[in-house]
Task: structure prediction
Amino acid sequence: MGDGNTSSRGGNSNSSNRPEWLQHYDLIGKIGEGTYGLVFLAKIKANRSKSIAIKKFKQSKDGDGVSPTAIREIMLLREITHENVVKLVNVHINQADMSLYLAFDYAEHDLYEIIRHHRDKVNQAINQYTVKSLLWQLLNGLNYLHSNWIIHRDLKPSNILVMGDGEEHGVIKIADFGLARIYQAPLEPLAKNGVRHTCYCNYSFSISPFWFSL
Result:
């Protein structure tokens, strides 16, 4: 989901081998993989027109359960709602191995994929009106996050999802809040909720030459 590294989708597996909570979904196949774990595409059986992305987290490196990254993402996304921020649909825990699954609204594209398509396949810049729309939506989502004292800290094209066909066609969704931080009230610091994890990040600012051609 939005990590720029997708694989081909497989068919449905035998539903009898799935955890009980997964019986509510028709699993289509794997669509992504990252350092956090795997992402699967599924449809809700009660509403076949609704596609969701199920993100399975790897256990923490210490082997003591759910990683702080996953906890942080859940706590943040349960507090916020905005048209340009990815929606957390549900949280599931597989009791057999205590693995964690997050269900999100499915977005067919991400900005990394769109940039690569125009650069490598059609060999032309993205339409200026499309760029303006994407940037306006991105800034709209960031303004909402910053107004709620949230810094994303991992904003990149692969974490900016773009909805496909449907009511939200072309709508941007900011995703992947594993490195996000709350830096002031009104939301409570995560440390007050038992999450004590420090991550030191050092990002250098750069702009791809592609953007200067738009």
